[in-house]
Write a structure and sequence with these properties.
The chain is α/β, with parallel strands linked by helices. It has 2 domains: about 140 residues, Response regulator (Rossmann fold), CATH 3.40.50; about 200 residues, Rossmann fold (3-Layer(aba) Sandwich), CATH 3.40.50.180. The protein is about 40% helix and about 20% strand. The strands form 3 sheets. Strands 8-9-7-6-12-13-14 form a 7-stranded parallel sheet, sandwiched between helices. A 5-stranded parallel sheet has the order 2-1-3-4-5, sandwiched between helices. The chain has a two-stranded antiparallel ribbon with strand order 10-11. The chain is globular, with a radius of gyration of 21 Å. About 10% of the residues have low confidence.
Length: about 375
């Protein structure tokens, strides 16, 4: 199917570069552009796009206000936020994600239009692919008769989820290896909203540190940490190189940098922040954190994989599970993009698959030895 896209940005130059980047992607038709939020709302009504790329900082009506109007008017359209790399841009982007934007990209700052175009193509390609898949599934669910629907594989079949009673028995047998001393969380597309529902449900006396890798660029993770800290009983902040993770504190990998665990001379973990090369086209990468915990602290973590594109985290989860860690995956119905959890489930690297709102309770029971 063809994906109809509308580009909204107050800068003529960037509208052109972004339109060119989108038009170069297979199956994408750029049906129009708008220079401000009010024009964007009118063009959504007139052109009926499937996708809107929405500049978050615009005069008159910013991207957050546009999203409010779209939802108030009942418009069904996927939105990718386009943001400058700034503290204000990060704060507005988090608000936009909370109002239904599927994801965001940052405005490239390369020395030439061609380099900026190539950068946009790299960022947009997986997002467009995921949105196209969502639209195809939505179309089938709305229009296909039951007998046709039964013949259409909406997604690759996932292996059966193990019976929870069986999982509990297996984990009790493994629990002698070590008591969980940390919670590890990996998440990407849809992550800020997922984390804003998951972390506030975790009690302030959970008793262990929580380490989180959310795929995000620099600056944005600080805004995310500040936002979550205002909502949660546990403290939430960016991880700092060399610090010892404390109980009842959640540490988010700084945007654009990796976070892993090191082993102090006294056997305790400490946080390492590095600029090692990207993994799975990501920095920070979930695998990078998970792998370090599997290697240095086998059997001593509860790991969670949440909504996101791709398969980052699967290799690390296989290592964690092999060493006796308990692994939780978010289910397809509650994911924005069922990519990272699907990859982990299909690799046999999970113990339970749960709706987002059930995960906090399972984390708490696992940490407290009631898996």
């Amino acid at each position: 199917m063809s994906l109809r896209a509308l580009v909204v940005d107050d800068a003529v130059f960037f509208r052109r570069v972004l339109s060119d980047a989108l038009a170069s992607l297979p199956g994408v038709e750029v049906v129009g552009s708008a220079a401000n939020g009010r024009l964007a709302l009118q063009k959504v009504r007139d052109l009926r796009p499937d996708l809107v790329t929405l500049d978050i900082e615009m005069p008159e009506m910013d991207g957050v206000a546009v999203l409010d109007e779209l939802r108030r008017n009942g418009e069904i359209v996927e939105v990718i936020v386009v943001s400058a790399v700034s503290r204000r841009g990060g704060q507005l982007t988090l608000r936009a994600l909370g109002k239904g934007a599927i994801d965001f990209i940052t405005k490239p700052e390369g020395p030439s239009p061609e380099q900026n175009r190539e950068s946009l193509i790299r960022e947009l390609t997986p997002l467009v692919r995921a949105i196209t898949n969502r639209l195809e599934i939505r179309t089938i669910l709305r229009s296909g008769p039951p007998e046709a629907l039964a013949r259409v594989p909406l997604s690759a079949p996932a292996p059966p989820v193990a019976d929870i009673g069986d999982v509990t028995g297996r984990m009790q047998r493994l629990s002698g290896l070590a008591k969980p001393e940390m919670v590890l969380i990996g998440v990407s597309t849809g992550g800020p909203v997922a984390l804003s529902r998951l972390l506030p449900a975790i009690p302030g006396d959970i008793g262990v540190p929580i380490l989180i890798v959310q795929h995000m660029p620099a600056v944005f993770t600080q805004a995310l940490a500040d936002d979550l800290n205002s909502k949660c009983a546990v403290r939430v902040r960016e991880g700092v190189h060399g610090e010892l993770p404390q109980p009842n504190v959640a540490y988010i990998a700084p945007g654009g940098r990796h976070m892993r665990l090191g082993l102090a001379p006294d056997g305790k973990p400490f946080i390492q922040i590095t600029d090692d090369p990207p993994e799975n086209n990501c920095r920070p990468a979930v695998d990078y954190l998970f792998r370090s915990a599997a290697r240095l602290f086998p059997g001593r973590a509860v790991a969670v994989i949440l909504t996101g594109m791709g398969s980052d985290g699967t290799i690390g989860l296989r290592l964690l599970k092999r060493n006796g860690c308990f692994v939780i995956a978010q289910d397809e119905a509650s994911c924005v993009i069922y990519g990272m959890p699907r990859a982990a489930v299909e690799a046999g690297a999970t113990d339970v698959v749960l709706p987002l709102d059930a995960i906090a309770g399972k984390i708490v029971s696992a940490v407290r030895g009631r898996r």
